[in-house]
């Protein structure tokens, strides 16, 4: 059963508490997770604002803390791009930086106390909120679909529409004459499996790790205050590694997939 709190039914037990924190704020027709949409959009603006300020304040003299941080991020991403992507592209580095920082910011929302944002928004009549966009499988799939579009676009740009289409039917098994005709359907199936496995693995890997982390923080919040301090601190420290690693993996795999897209078999 539930209890009335602030004109709204509040969770009365651990099961309802978990279900409440795993429920999305949805649009009127129930088709859009508004919390995922707005939080990811706001964090995207935060990323753009921080990097824009760093660019405007950049100096060739002694750099400030913000410039040092941004340069460190750009150097990390640039090293990854240079080691994996050997073709020429003016898009790949900005894309990689955007993915890494944006995904990291969304992952880092997991560090906020579980009840902080929901309690604040209760004053505005909002009683459901999930603050980690990457713990929403719809969002991670949406990002991976964007990566899929980039893979196809990079392939067509590098090989031409005809070259890319030909590759779908002639690789990975090469043959000539009648053999090529028989192997074409097999090649096409393998190409489609490879093409769609990439975004699916990207999205599920990020979603699974962040959903598990979110759930663990919710379970810790159910413990007595002394147990929260005892377990919450070490888990939060360990989760810093997970948050950063998952953002880096999503970015690095995107770069690798795009590098494979522009290479000829």
Biggest sheet, spatial arrangement of strands: 1-2
What's the β-strand tally? 2
Q: What is the helix tally?
A: 8
Derived structural class? mainly alpha
Mean pLDDT reading: 89
Low-confidence stretches: 1-7
- Quaternary structure of the protein: single chain
Number of domain units: 1
Rg is: 23 Å
Distance between the termini: 61 Å
Shape: globular
- Main sheet attributes: strand count, strand direction, barrel closure: 2 strands, antiparallel
**H and E order:** EEHHHHHHHH
Approximate strand percentage: under 5%
- Estimate percent helicity: over 70%
Tell me about this structure.
With 265 residues, the protein is mainly alpha-helical. It has 8 helices and 2 strands, in the order ββαααααααα. The protein has one domain (3-262). Strands 1-2 form a two-stranded antiparallel sheet. Its main location: membrane. This is ATP synthase subunit a.
Features:
8 helices, 72% helix, mainly alpha, globular, 265 residues, two-stranded antiparallel ribbon
Give a brief description:
It comes from Pseudoduganella ginsengisoli. With 265 residues, this protein is an all-alpha fold. The chain contains eight helices and two strands; from the N terminus they run E-E-H-H-H-H-H-H-H-H.
Show the helix and strand layout:
Elements (H helix, E strand, L loop, with lengths): L2 E3 L2 E3 L3 H8 L12 H24 L7 H20 L7 H17 L7 H7 L14 H34 L7 H44 L3 H38 L3
Antiparallel strand pairs: 1-2
Helix pairs in contact: 2-4, 3-4, 3-8, 4-8, 6-7, 6-8, 7-8
GO biological process, one term: proton motive force-driven plasma membrane ATP synthesis
Function: Key component of the proton channel; it plays a direct role in the translocation of protons across the membrane.
Protein name: ATP synthase subunit a
